[in-house]
Amino acid sequence: MSNDVIVIIGAGGIGLAIARRQGFGRTVLLADHNDTVLKSGLQQLRDAGYVAEAQAVDVTSRASVRTLTEAAADLGKVTQVVNTAGLSPNMAPISKVLEVDLYGAAVVFDEFERVIAPGGSGLIISSMAGHMMPALPSEQDHALAFTPTDELLDLPFLKADAVPNTLVAYMLAKRANHLRVQASAISWGEKGARVNSISPGIIVTPLALHELNSEIGDVYRAMVNASPSKRVAPPDEIAVAASFLLGPDAGFITGSDLLIDGGVIAAMRAGKLSTPG
Fold first, then answer.
1. At residue 162, does pLDDT exceed 90?
2. Is residue 21 a contact partner of residue 82, using CB atoms and an 8 Å limit?
3. Residue 104: its pLDDT value, please?
């Protein structure tokens, strides 16, 4: 077995699917904020024959993420980092959605840049929601991309009184993910590494089922019905795309976002579906 280490942040359906696809023959360091979910994911990997370790992490705490990077580096050469952590709009208030999905994502980019190996790659699982909003003013795009991470949540247009609801907060966070990937591609490139994002549509995970069974479930069903594919997708379809973006065949791809939504955004652009928010 090589001494390559793959870090998976978020032990849910997509995180575990990517871990299974990428982790064999390497060491998987699985991280999550939820101890029960983390232990379950670790056991699933070990029962399937993977070499796997676990580490609790809170992506909203720089100290916690730094501890995770140090644990990863102690295990071997950190070659792949995948961040799937996030909160949906129906799970938390505006401030927490922005803290986890926007600030936390930026912290992960910052801290893993320190330990990523030359030739390594990073990936954040964002969301098609980042493609739903109208274009932001150029100065806001620039601020989301390049503001020092610890100052991000102080931007005036991210203050609670400027964000009308959790859905807009979520869309802003996911737009920020795409922009931070572009900015991080420059600094990661100086380490000889790449970073990209995937923006999934409705993927069959516990999080998606929570949304489908919530008061906004009809919005999700309308997206499926309006889309060209007229279906949802399993986590394994995201893992296939992640494997490509993380691997050597994608060596010329960095700072990019791959939209995998069954055509939901296309349906919005065509006027077959109203933009939420």
1. yes
2. no
3. 98
Question: What b-and-e string marks burial along 137-162, b requiring 16 or more CB atoms within 10 Å of the CB?
Answer: eeebbebbbebebeebbebeebeeee
Catalytic residue among 103, 174, 230, 272: 174
Handedness of CA 9, 11, 17, 21 (dihedral sign): positive
CA dist 230 and 236 (Å) reads: 18
* Residues in CB range of 253: below 8 A, 6 or more apart: 194, 196, 245
103 catalytically annotated: no
Distances (CA, A) of 110 to 88, 107, 143, 188, 252: 23, 5, 16, 9, 22
What is the overall mean pLDDT for the chain? 95
Q: Any catalytic annotation for residue 230?
A: no
Annotate the chain with DSSP letters as a single string.
---EEEEEE--SHHHHHHHHHH-TTSEEEEEES-HHHHHHHHHHHHHTT-EEEEEE--TT-HHHHHHHHHHHHHHSEEEEEEE-----TTTS-HHHHIIIIIIIHHHHHHHHHTTPPTT-EEEEE--GGGGTSPPPPHHHHHHHHHS-GGGGGGSGGGSGGG--SHHHHHHHHHHHHHHHHHHHHHHHHTTT-EEEEEEE-SB-SHHHHHHHTSTTHHHHHHHHHHSSS-S-B-HHHHHHHHHHHHSGGGTT--S-EEEESTTHHHHHHTTSSPPP-
Q: pTM for this one?
A: 0.95
Of 77, 170, 191, 220, which residue is the catalytic one? 170
Homologous superfamily in CATH for domain 4-269:
NAD(P)-binding Rossmann-like Domain (3.40.50.720)
